Records
---
Amino acid sequence: MTFDCPRKWQDSPSAIHALLFDLDGTLVDSAPDLAGAANEMRLSRGLAALPLETLRPLVGTGARGMLEVALQMTPAHSDYEASRSEFLDRYEARMARETQLFDQVLELLSGLRLAGIPWGIVTNKAERFALPLTRELGLDEAAFAVIGGDTTAHAKPHPAPLLEAAKRGGIDPQRCVYIGDDERDIIAGRAAGMGTVAAGWGYLGNGKPIEAWNADIILSSPSGILKLLGLA
């Protein structure tokens, strides 16, 4: 199920009634804590910590990507499930230690509030982590929905989580824009019939270049969203 947003919403920003954001790499920089959990595992095994910049691009791939880089361990390894559980437990214990909002995100969310534009969060992070982290960072009260990777039967790039968020907000999906830093965010947004923005300030992964994701727009900073909507 894929189709284009039915209008050039960029040329008519007043047609947008809500924004939906990915979490990691879009609203928050969680790389230090995800990388920290991976490096804790390395240190416990007598290995040296890896530089943050080595681990940072793989943040969007979650535990699988972290374990592959940190321990050269794939799901085929006999100890993978135990190591994955260890990683998640270590991350849960420190997930708000160094994680913070990206620069300009507070200003962006304040601008949306003043303009009366509702916004929500759709992440592939399990609710076990997404709900307490958004509470810790003060995002949960302002967001009309926080949808995790296990809130619906499917995670992104399936459109189900985005459609669930729109449903909870009582908003027509075709009047939403989804903003994320991974190609699967753009795939999910297009499949849901939403406008799409690629967050060029995020992690971006090691796959296709951002220009090949087929997003409606690529922005280099969160402040660009306010400009796009005519609010700055």
---
Amino acid sequence: MLIAIWAQDENGLIGKNNHLPWHLPNDLQFFKEKTSNHTLVMGRKTFEGMGGRPLPNRQTIVLTRDKDYQAKNVLVMHTVEDVLAYDQANEGETFIAGGSAIYTEFLPYCEKIYRTFIADSFEGDAYFPALAWDEWQLIAREAGKKDEKNPYPYYFETYTRIDA
């Protein structure tokens, strides 16, 4: 099953110079809890923005058009079809983890969304692609704990695709 997971500000911003524009440890913990022991799919820029190494306890797929690209301890794939075939062949969940172009490619195939909505605005250069929200149903929304380490108001949201 394909699941999109991301955090965004109130303007749809998701990145700045291939990094998150905010520091929200509780969101990072949420991401870890949801994705551990599953597969992560991301583009090359997102992967390199995370330090160019896979996260622990996750199979990482880097999707790139560069046929010569190599990275240690990850699967490198070159087409959406390759990733879809991998997902079909494996039990478990495959998480789409960015960036913008990767979300655009895979959202039509996703069955679930985990979105952290940060009720604040930031500066950056990458935005979540336009999404037909009428195709999705909000099934859970939980306010995150705001404290000195997590200074912004934020919400963990779960959506499922509405059957056509």
---
Amino acid sequence: MDSLTQLTLGSAVAAAVLAKTPGSRAKVVLTGAVLGTLPDLDVIIDYGDAVSNMVLHRTQSHAFFYQTLAAPLLAWLAALCCGQRAHYWRWLLATWLILISHTLIDAMTIYGTQFGLPFTNTPYAVGSMFIIDPLYTLPLIAGVLYYLFGHRRGYQLNMVMLSLSSLYLLWSVAAQWHVRQVVSVSLQQQQLQYQQLLVTPAPLNTVLWRIVVMSEHGYGEGFYSLLDNKANVQLHWVEQDPALKQRYGMLKPVQQLAWFSQGFYALEQQGDSLLLTDLRMGQEGSYAFVFKLDPTDASAPQQLPMRRDAVKALPWLWQRMRGTPLPSPYISAALTANQ
């Protein structure tokens, strides 16, 4: 999840565990925020190339085993900074919960979190939450503010807001399951043959969902809103040359992304170069992770900037979320430019 969500979640958990201990509430909230953002400091590590930096994010710093080993020392430092050494055991519980909750909320997104290290490096990804979702973060902020500014029921209100945010996570899983059932029936009715199906939320919400379907000769992208009048999912298909994956499948960056994305990737020839795309994050015409490879020397893949156009994308998102059948803004813009 985004940094604001993680630091706020850390503060909320710290407040929940340490609310009844004497001392500065501000220090508790600030220390919880610092602990909540610590696992993401692994982004400063350079693993040698752009693809490796991507697939090795959320590894050891997000693993339950290593977090449990680090918790006693971090808890001692936290208790020392807050002048609460007498409440070390409460800080140990708070620190462990903050680190674990950071990993758990990250695992709810589609990116991939390797929390089983060192026993397994499987990148777990529920994919029911977008990386930024105001309906999850705002209750956490409200609860922390109630606690921080001395409201006499601040502890209870912080717990209520933590519970609401947790219920929202459960809602996202239920909504994802429902959309997957709708999409599966729609694809069956259309007699479409496919190999893999991905259902993940569109930006900032859990009402509009993005669908990616992988087939032998390409992939299809579609959207389904819980407010749609019809349970019929229309896909925009992008053809792919399967020979490219066979020819270049042994290149290290291709192997890495194929594993990390669990098969939801695209490989395209562009002149003398290859474009390697993670199809899980972003949407057609605007992907978060696109890498340019030299097939003769794939040791230094170059990450291309993500195409963004908020002027078109945000109005489209709002209208499509409400059930208006509109094509993706990036696809429609490309079609218009080619006419």
---
Amino acid sequence: MKLKICLSLTFLMATLSFAQQKKTEKSKFNQELATSLGADKYGMKAYTIVMLTTGSAKIEDKAKMGELMKGHMTNIGKLSDEGKIIVAGPFLEKNKENYRGMFIFNTKSKEEAESWVKTDPAVAAGIFSYEIFPWYGSAALPLYLKHHDEISKETP
């Protein structure tokens, strides 16, 4: 019984030691990549988040609303292609703040982010309003976009 406990404890300690070693091992730092992404010493950078909220416009015409939402999606694609927007998407549930969706813009300037969000036809028409917040996140965040086309069968 003691041998079994001793072997179990030895195995557990070896496993924990290996896990700690893996945790402390750092992947090879890539200065060129960090510089190209604008990373600070922590691998992070400033972005701007825009929270889209329910706007004041009430458009009952379904064709007009469809046209505005198509323009909204086209504008997101354009801003993404230009490297300005790196995250965009709707919220899946209603919430008390009336947040409808969000953008993460690749800028630390609230003014620049606002100029970009104003190019959205749904914002211009009052379907969406917005709130702007500075945000600090991984400088590698934009890299996921290059793989998105590989995993999506259709464009919304």
